[in-house]
Amino acid sequence: QVQLVESGGGLVQAGGSLRLSCAASGRTDNYYGMGWFRQGSGKEREFVAAISWYSGATYYADSVKGRFTISRDNAKNPVYLQMNTLKPEDTAVYYCAAQTTSGNSYYRGNYDYWGQGTQVTVSS
């Protein structure tokens, strides 16, 4: 049974930073990649960032490029999302997700497992 648990969310002022973590339990050797998505109030869930499980290649949404960094440690667990220069429009519930088959890492339908989410609120 795969379980993903996010942590690190909270309330921060605009311009501040937060680091989210995603810990995976269960089988992880079949992962293709890990991603972060977010869903603001009344909005659809959108792609934020992804990392290839074995190559370490990273991918970002244009809205966060240059401000957010996705990374993993050598053991590949957990996966982090460092968020700098946060803006009020970054306010959302952030979800980590695991992809077990190859495919477009930007597309949420290609992810098989999801965490419960962690709230990030950026005040102006």
Shape descriptor reads: globular
The separation of the N and C termini measures 40 Å
Low-confidence stretches: none
Number of strands: 11
Structural class: mainly beta
Q: Please compute the radius of gyration using only Cα atoms.
A: 13 Å
Helicity range:
under 10%
Name the quaternary structure: single chain
Residue-averaged pLDDT: 93
How large is the share of residues in beta strands?
over 45%
Reading the helices and strands in chain order gives: EEEEEEEEEEE
Biggest β-sheet description: 7 strands, mixed
Q: What is the number of helical segments per DSSP (H or I, 4+ residues)?
A: 0
Summary of the model, kept short:
By secondary structure, the chain is mainly beta.
How would you characterize this protein structure?
- The chain has 124 residues and is mainly β.
- It is 0% helix and 48% strand.
- A hairpin with a 6-residue loop joins strand 4 (33-39) and strand 5.
- The termini are far apart.
Topology:
Layout: E1 3-7, E2 10-13, E3 18-25, E4 33-39, E5 46-52, E6 58-60, E7 68-72, E8 79-83, E9 92-99, E10 113-114, E11 118-123
Parallel strand pairs: 2-11
Antiparallel strand pairs: 1-3, 3-8, 4-5, 4-9, 5-6, 7-8, 9-10, 9-11
What would the keywords be for this entry?
124 residues, mainly beta, seven-stranded mixed β-sheet, 11 strands, globular
